[in-house]
Specification:
Order of helices and strands: EHHHEHHEEEHHHEHEEEHH
Strand content: 5-15%
Helix content: 25-40%
Oligomer: single chain
Largest sheet: 4 strands, antiparallel
Number of strands: 9
Structural class: alpha/beta
Strand order of the largest sheet: 3-4-5-6
Number of helices: 11
Shape: elongated
Length: 288
């Protein structure tokens, strides 16, 4: 059996906070990510609506398990592997640990009022909502054609601000698409969720938008009416993708697995009585 251990502050060695409990926001605060995103010590900001380090830690644990399985196949030795939110937060911020003055690529905009990187890559206000334009200086001529006037790099921001605020976002998006300029409207999570939610029973393929949701109603093992992010948001074109049901409640199959191994019903009753095994970790799907 390969055992993968995931926690908040875990590392190669034990420390005073090794056993502290916590989640994504905790490590964002402790590691300085909130401060960097918020702009200063007085306004720390959570970075990302979806778990930034939770997701990254999930990828890291998958890599740990894959590495352990490869090692076992090659050597016959079984490993115990681990990662943590602290580990991936450190990995994520390695570039900022090597910051120096000439390395301008690491000078990122921060703070709650920041609208983007520069005049070519930022949010612009339309009549109805904001639109994010992701362009660069090489596309200056395209904007000159759109505005029907000769533009210089210094002119782009004030001219686009005026042009965008006079039009609806859909009109702006159509115009930018015609010129092959990347842009996206600023959508609210509730609107995206309403538009791209599909019931679990109706899932036939994975052709829905990457940023989509699944309505589990009462078919989730927790027996709760949950709406969750689609579990297959990253989809390769070059390999098969399978939709897997969520993990059953911990302990649900304890009896069936041990019966398969040859233990009797009386054995299992005795094991449970002596607390050698258990049929549940908690009353609910996960401990609260």
């Amino acid at each position: 059996m390969v055992f993968c251990h995931i926690d908040l502050f875990g590392g190669p060695k034990l420390g005073p906070m090794t056993n502290h409990l916590g989640y994504d926001d905790v490590i964002q605060a402790v590691s300085g990510i909130m401060t960097r995103f918020g702009g200063n010590l007085k306004t720390p900001e959570e970075h990302g609506y979806v778990g930034l380090l939770d997701v990254m830690c999930g990828f890291a644990s998958s890599l740990c398990i894959a590495s352990a399985l490869f090692h076992k196949k090659r050597t016959g030795e079984t490993l115990r592997v681990r990662t943590s939110l602290a580990a991936v937060s450190g990995f994520l911020q390695i570039p900022f640990c090597h910051y120096y003055k000439k390395n301008e690529i690491l000078i990122e905009p921060s703070g709650r009022m920041i609208q983007g990187k520069n005049s070519f890559s930022r949010f612009y206000k339309c009549q109805d909502t904001w639109v994010y334009v992701d362009s660069n200086k090489n596309e200056l001529s395209k904007f000159s054609n759109i505005l029907n006037k000769k533009l210089l790099n210094n002119d782009i921001e004030k001219n686009l601000e005026q042009y965008f605020k006079e039009k609806k976002s859909l009109e702006i998006l159509d115009i930018l698409k015609e010129y092959n300029i990347a842009a996206s409207p600023l959508n609210k999570i509730k609107d995206i969720r309403k538009k791209f939610t599909v019931k679990k029973e109706e899932i036939k393929n994975l052709s829905t938008k990457s940023y989509s949701f699944i309505d589990w109603s009462k078919s989730h093992p927790s027996r709760l009416p949950l709406t969750l992010f689609h579990s297959r948001t990253v989809r390769s074109k070059n390999s098969n993708i399978y939709f897997l049901d969520p993990t059953e409640k911990y302990g649900q199959s304890t009896r069936s697995y041990l019966l398969e191994l040859g233990y009797s019903k009386d054995d299992l009753d005795n094991f449970i009585l002596k607390e050698i095994i258990n049929e549940s970790w908690s009353f609910q799907y996960l401990p609260t």
